[in-house]
Amino acid sequence: MLVLDATGHARRPIRGRATNLALHPSEKSTMAIDDTNQTEPSIPAVGAVPPASNTPPTVPQFLPYREAYERALPATAALSEDELLHVNIDLPRAVATAIAALPRIMAYRDEAAKLNGFDTSHFDELQLHAFAVGHAHVKFLVASAPPEALATLNESALELRDTIYHDAVALAHRGLIRGERVAEFKANVGYQNLAFDLLGLSDLLRQNWEQIASRSAVQLGELDQAELIGQQLMDAVGTREQAAALMARAQAQRQRNFTLFSRSYDQVRRAIGFLRWNHEDVDQICPSLFAGRGGSRRKEPPAPTPPGADPSATSSDSASPLAS
Q: Which 8-state DSSP code applies to residue 314?
């Protein structure tokens, strides 16, 4: 079918684009296409320089973070202690960098597969390990969060202990209770000591309640509260000690996830760096995770060795790093 353009000449409509066929105004607003903004989504062809873009690529969320973490657990458990790497980068930024670069990175997967001895699982599992280490880092942050509840409980316990202690000192001064017992609870430091002070003072005053009930400002309700807060403080201390163990486990697991993530990303970056050696654009495709730290973890070699190959097998005087 032919349509007339603005000059009155007959032209064939462009396939795949809507033409203005006397639509209702409301329909025109939804069906008209602005040619100036018409783009076709694409992945850079292997061997081509990736187009510059101010908009970061969108990465489909194929795998929830928790599911990736659980799927990676067997691989992390198989790592030996000697293989573990220290977490020496900003993990949230590194994970975001890797995820944003995934579409560009995966464009070179098939070409990297042709490299002698290269393990393409580093490409295939990069997203898995990026999501997994992200979730492991969140678990570590949760486990290492400051115990705000314990701090609040400690503040209440200190105030109540001081009130009851000063009342007990006054009672001891009048000879109504034993002064040496009161001295045992004099401003002891530490959560556990504070808890024992509350429980001990409460018990001391209860034992002498008949003698002091009408001669002290202390109320039985305060003693009940002292016992309750003392017990809560003891429980909180126990929970904190367990939290320290949980934090240690979370930190160790994060290190294992980071090792797999860093290993895959390094291998992928090395392969792309070899394939794109003459273009010098590896940082545009697979950015360094150490960006912004004043340099990378290691110096770049003068000429690349194919990933998975014996470095001695590559001729040092080859005209091209791809030459075999």
A: S
Q: What are the angstrom distances between the C-alpha of 261 and each of 87, 247, 303?
A: 11, 21, 25
Which residue(s) pair with 3 in the sheet?
11
* Close Cβ partners of 249 (under 8 Å, ≥ 6 residues apart): 143
Across 19-23, average pLDDT: 37
Question: Is the Cβ–Cβ distance between 70 and 112 less than 8 Å?
Answer: no
* 12-15 long-range contacts, CB within 8 A, separation 24+: none
- Shortest CA distance to 43 belongs to which of 62, 57, 54? 57
| Spatial separation of the C-alpha atoms in residues 306 and 312, rounded to whole Å | 11
Of residues 75 and 36, more confidently modeled: 75
Instruction: Choose among 74, 115, 57: nearest CA to 276.
Output: 115
Instruction: Assess contact for 69 and 132: CB atoms under 8 A.
Output: yes
Helix (H) or strand (E) holding 4: strand 3-4
Integer angstrom CA distances of residue 176 from 86, 163, 186, 229: 62, 17, 18, 26
Residue 94 has pLDDT above 80, yes or no: yes
Contacts of 144 (CB under 8 A, 6+ apart): 247, 250, 251
**Mean pLDDT, residues 186-203 taken together:** 84
pLDDT digits (tens, 9 = 90+) for 275-291: 999 999 999 999 999 86
Q: What is the pLDDT of residue 239?
A: 74
Q: Rounded to whole angstroms, how far apart are CA atoms 254 and 129?
A: 11
Q: Measure the CA–CA gap between 205 and 49, rounded to whole angstroms.
A: 82
- In whole numbers, what is the pLDDT of the chain averaged over residues? 76
Which tops the pLDDT comparison, 260 or 309? 260
Q: What tokens were used for 215?
A: 């001669």
Token reading at 163: 């009130």
What Å distances lie between residue 318 and 93, 103, 168, 304, CA to CA?
38, 31, 90, 11
Measured distance CA(322)–CA(309) in Å, rounded: 12
pLDDT beyond 50 at 232: yes
Kindly tell me the sign of the dihedral angle through the C-alpha atoms of 79, 80, 82, 86: positive
